Amino acid sequence: MQWGSASEFFAMGGYGLYVWTSFVATALCMVWEVLALWRRRAAACAEQRAALLGGTDETTA
Amino acid sequence: MSTGINWLKYSSPQAFYPLAGHLIPWFACVAVALMGVGLYMGFFVAPTDFQQGEAYRIIFVHVPAAWMSMFLYVVMAVWAGIGMGLNARLSFMMAQAIAPTGAMFTFLALLTGAMWGKPTWGAWWVWDARLTSELILLFQYAGVMLLRTSIDDVRRADRASAVFALVGVVNVPIIYFSVQWWNTLHQGASVSMATGSKMASTMLTAMLLMTVAFWLYSIAVILARVRCVMIERESSPVWNDEKPAVIQETVEAR
Amino acid sequence: MSGSSMWEAVSGIIRRDLLLAMRRRSDAAMSVFFLVIVVSLFPLGVGPEPAVLRTIGPGVLWVAALLACLLSLGRVFTADYLDGVLEQMVLIPQPLALLVGGKVVAHWVISGFPIVLLSPLLGLQFGLSGESLGVLVMSLLLGTPTLSMIGAIGAALVLGVRGSGLLVALLVLPLYVPVLIFGAGAVTSSMAGIGGEANLSLLGACLVLSLFLAPWATAAALRIALE
Fold first, then answer.
1. Which residues constitute the domain of residue A61?
2. Chains B and A touch (3+ CB pairs under 8 A)
3. Count of domains forming chain A
4. pTM of the prediction?
5. What is the mean pLDDT of residues C171-197?
6. A24, A45, A53, best to mutate vs chain B, most B CBs in 10 Å
7. Which of B112, B220, C46, C138 could cross-link with B62 by S-S, CB 3.0 to 4.6 Å?
8. Contact between B95 and B114 (Cβ < 8 Å)
């Protein structure tokens, strides 16, 4: 362990801006991708459900 | 195929859909766990680099992202090739599912590369062979995805983007070597990319852990996306044998 | 399939395309005018300093040639696609890749070759020396057919697709990068006194590679577009 304190850890030897931008950007991209997939799946399921129910309504009518 | 599992069974979307659903949580959990261990090792175990100071820690996301960006393009092209050769729907769906994740990793590799380059070289960007090929790779991912979205007919979109993905596989190595050649000609801009030949073994371990974690993450995300693609493409319920959740929910809702 | 009938089919296609182009000469003239205008804009933009112009000259000429080739790509297959000739071509017993090769050769003669002929004149605008002008012409002579070959893949992929003009640029420009590097590099290195031979032979290698691979990819793309 080479960090004396939390502030030293976040400073990253003066390179904090570069290091944390990289890691935060990567984390944000991954979280965003997972959330986007979540929404895409919900939308696709909703669409299929609508198509399915609409289809059965037509046959029963 | 007399013994074991009949793997060909899973080449149909109907069979692959539930299989992917079972696999996603496993890949995701292991990816998160390895990422945790990798980050811990990268930040708390790996020592400070005596040349680059703490800035080198960017490689724990940069190198895995760069490797995944290239690896995923090759995998996408392989699926595209299989799709063209065997006319398999699942292969095209896989190729479609891989492209966005690959493009994201390419973007991240470029971004984190700039973040690493600024403190190390003093420049956000240099026209080095690796950087240029990575940039062109991003353009090719964009091309594959744009070509797909511009064509309405799914079958044609599948096959056209497959052809472009395959052509791109030839292009990237040529670009890499041509820029390398070009740089030897323009000697001014040559920057040594060597990240210190002697990496501490803990650094290497952390980097490899992160790479495996990114790889498993990619598999989980791509499987999730391929399931979305399957639902989107089948407007009528075709999953007769093993119904996906959506259909069961629908049946219950009625 | 006898060799002679294959050759007849290919040369027939080349002759037909050249004849059609002769009837609509303004089409071919347009990409040349485009090249001249783009190249003339650069000195106006960066200033008339001869040393600067000489440094950027090879790159500017090559990028402009590349864009001119790109703009002419829409003409390779579109007319034949719209009037149904392309569908007939796919049904001809001769291999489609060969026929595609014929069409690309015709396209190069119409829109690539004039660029090669005009390039020394444009090189003079940038103060290139006699030897560099020779290398420029050689590099374009080897490079523009490669551009046509690669461009045909993109043109076939986007046939009949909405927004195809912009899309083909996005698809094809990344593929043009090696040709640009070697082409402009040949001229630059001849100006630096190293001689452009190495770059020219690499351009030749690109041409051979594209001659072998591009027609197959283009034929596959055409089949997909016509399904």
1. 25-61
2. yes
3. 1
4. 0.88
5. 89
6. A45
7. B112
8. no
